[in-house]
Amino acid sequence: MKIAALDMDGTVYVDENITEAVKEAIAAWRSAGNLAVSATGKSIANARGTLEPFGVELDYHVLYNGTVLTEGDYTVLQEEHLAADTVTAIAERFTGKALNIYTTGLTGADQLVWDGLSGQESSMVAGAQVADLEVAAKRDTTLMSLWIPGDAALRQEVDEWVRANCDVESSFNCDFYDIMPPGHNKGEGLTRLLSSLGHEDTELYTFGDSFNDLSMHAIATESFSFPHGEIGGHVDHIVPDVAAGLNGLLARS
């Protein structure tokens, strides 16, 4: 048995679509006795909304960039949360800036607590609901994301302030800046999942296209990205898509 860890946006889910080739390759991988695991910044609600319309089933999920682990049916196995005062401090510091601030928990839609982009929307947080910061901070927040499209200077400002003032883990994901509880990322989440399953020594193949995937690529037996990805110099293989990578691995067996 082998394990494939799959990022969602830009990897399995590209241009708001999961191709038949990718869907069939995941199914073939699982039918061969292997495990397929999502490793994504998406929430439970967002992951379901991405995979279920295309009929894609996975064995486990590493969600919220490693903060929450679930079964394939999204039953929660482990979870962690950001401190409420941390959520409030970050939101208050960057309210007024040209960015959007989202918080997300185990249940319900992602919450938009500051809209500094005049109603612009990203498919990566589809269905987000406008929420008051005071109300949002009172619920258990598993991930906080700041959407900062096209402004490298502002992304740098956010990153420097968060690193200097907050006890959190953070990473860039395309135009998003993701903030997790301290010590949590995709690689750490996968490590915990594999340990809980007794599969610490199982071959692990990782697929992802952005900087928040580097932590899981670092622990992989082999890592894969794509021509459109941001991290080509940090992986073992560049393949056209997930289907090509999984089918190539199956052909070795």
From TrEMBL:
Alphabetical list of Pfam families matching this protein: Hydrolase_3
EC number from the UniProt entry: 3.1.3.-, 3.6.1.-
GO cellular component, one term: cytosol
Record flagged with keyword Cell cycle: no
Keyword vocabulary terms for this entry: Hydrolase
Sample GO molecular function, one term: phosphatase activity
Main EC class the enzyme belongs to: hydrolase
The protein, known as: HMP-PP phosphatase
Organism ancestry: Bacteria, Bacillati, Actinomycetota, Actinomycetes, Mycobacteriales
Gene giving rise to this polypeptide: yidA_1
